[in-house]
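sry for the spam today, last one i promise. struct tokens for design, 220 residues
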């Protein structure tokens, strides 16, 4: 059973998402919150698998809520998905940097929304290749994370190769094909890299790969 927390200051939005989730046999909405502070408290109380968090809310916004969740060891297994009306904007990028696993635009189709919840619960990032390209364009203009280069040196050559392919938007199966290894081995390389780089998920691997210069866009 996938346990979900809804955090949005608009009751109509929450009720709409809840109506979609409640009809699913393998999903349970364990709590709802109208702002980030309440959402953080309920996250600690219920320990959901997935938190769907609006990015702009009173009291505490989605970015700060995500950051506090990411910094709390007790919530390490929880996956945050940011909800936004605006698509790829500065707030979304900041949320990904804070530790979000991905984001959804609120006008998403119902079937895509339900699929996204399942993807997030598995620990996969909600970042399609098209989104990854836009992340690249954003992050290559940002200052490098001072500790990232040193941390990358802890990776094996194969782990570095796997991270670079994640940054290109490839799935584990696609990474396996590219590296001529099994899907299980590809997943192992990615998971070990996440552990060494202290990345919560694939979204943060994308950020780290470009911030560190491990991968550079062709037009640069």
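last one done:
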């Amino acid at each position: 059973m996938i346990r979900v927390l809804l955090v949005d200051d608009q009751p109509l939005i929450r009720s709409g998402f809840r109506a979609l989730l409640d009809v699913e046999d393998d999903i349970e909405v364990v709590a709802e919150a109208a702002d980030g502070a309440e959402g953080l408290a309920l996250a600690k109380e219920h320990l959901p698998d997935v938190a769907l968090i609006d990015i702009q809310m009173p009291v505490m916004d989605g970015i700060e809520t995500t950051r506090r969740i990411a910094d709390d060891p007790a919530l390490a297994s929880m996956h945050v998905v940011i909800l936004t009306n605006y698509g790829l904007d500065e707030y979304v990028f900041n949320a990904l940097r804070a530790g979000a696993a991905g984001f959804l635009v609120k006008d998403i189709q119902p079937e895509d929304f339900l699929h996204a919840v399942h993807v997030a619960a598995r620990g996969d990032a909600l970042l399609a290749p098209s989104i990854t390209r836009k992340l690249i364009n954003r992050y290559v203009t940002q200052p490098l994370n001072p500790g990232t280069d040193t941390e990358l040196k802890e990776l094996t050559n194969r782990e570095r190769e796997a991270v670079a392919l994640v940054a290109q938007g490839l799935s584990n199966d696609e990474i396996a094909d590219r590296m001529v290894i099994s899907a299980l081995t590809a997943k192992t390389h990615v998971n070990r890299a996440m552990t060494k780089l202290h990345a919560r998920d694939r979204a943060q691997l994308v950020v780290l790969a470009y911030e560190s210069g491990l991968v550079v866009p062709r037009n640069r």
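The longest helix spans residues 183-197. ok im logging off now
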